[in-house]
């Protein structure tokens, strides 16, 4: 038996989410239909509608914001001469949870991946260069992931800014806290050696 169209449409909408198969999508749809009251359903629907209206990209760093600029860019207690370049919004959230970084961010919204047709023009590099030209940035921290694409993007940015009087650093990668050396892969061991510091 086919579901009524309203239910089918809701199931298909849930199935668009990453990691959600048709069975989970059906379960979500029927939970909403049978377990949620009208007030909860209206609040759920309103929050989805308001999401696109209320949230935008910060014009300075491309982080999410419900104001003109994001809270981090507007925070005068943070060091404006220190910028950390990250791949996406989730990286900003992860770094902010550590409560250790006191500079500003720049979100690339992707990495260079030539095999998928993603070139430098497809990520947020131009705005980064504008920021570097219009401010006295002392250090640029490249915090892209330790993947082929992350390394390629970091090297590309480093080359772009090589003629500017800016210290460029790369976050260290290596053995995680609590990790055993014998179980680490060769790339992780090599990265931990390269990222070593005086003890």
Summarize this structure as a short list of keywords or feature phrases.
two-stranded antiparallel ribbon; single chain; alpha/beta; 199 residues
Could you explain how this protein is built, in words?
With 199 residues, this protein is an alpha/beta fold. The protein is built from 8 helices and 6 strands. Helix 1 packs across helix 2.
Strand arrangement within the widest β-sheet reads: 4-3-5-6
- H/E element string? HHHEEHEHEHEHEH
Number of helices: 8
- What do the pLDDT scores average to? 89
How helix-rich are the residues, as a percent range? 40-55%
What about the largest sheet?
Answer: 4 strands, parallel
The shape is: globular
Rounded to the nearest angstrom, the radius of gyration is: 22 Å
N-C termini distance: 68 Å
Number of strands: 6
Low-confidence stretches: none
Strand content: 5-15%
Structural class: alpha/beta
């Amino acid at each position: 038996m086919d579901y009524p169209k309203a239910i089918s449409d809701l199931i298909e909408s849930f199935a668009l989410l990453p990691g959600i198969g048709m069975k989970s999508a059906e379960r979500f749809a029927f939970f909403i239909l049978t377990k949620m009251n009208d007030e909860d359903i209206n609040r759920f629907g309103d929050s989805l509608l308001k999401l696109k209206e209320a949230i935008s990209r910060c014009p300075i760093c491309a982080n999410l914001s419900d104001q003109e600029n994001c809270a981090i860019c507007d925070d005068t207690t943070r060091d404006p001469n220190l910028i950390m370049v990250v791949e996406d919004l989730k990286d900003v959230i992860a770094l902010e949870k550590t409560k250790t970084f006191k500079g500003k961010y720049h979100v690339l919204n992707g990495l260079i991946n030539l095999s998928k047709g993603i070139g430098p023009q497809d990520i947020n590099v131009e705005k980064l260069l504008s920021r570097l030209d219009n401010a006295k940035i002392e250090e640029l921290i490249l915090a892209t992931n330790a993947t082929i694409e992350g390394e390629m993007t970091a090297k590309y940015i480093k080359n772009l800014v090589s003629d500017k009087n800016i210290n460029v650093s790369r976050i260290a990668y290596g053995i995680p806290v609590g990790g055993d050396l014998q179980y680490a892969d060769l790339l992780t061991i090599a990265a931990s050696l390269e990222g070593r510091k005086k003890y």
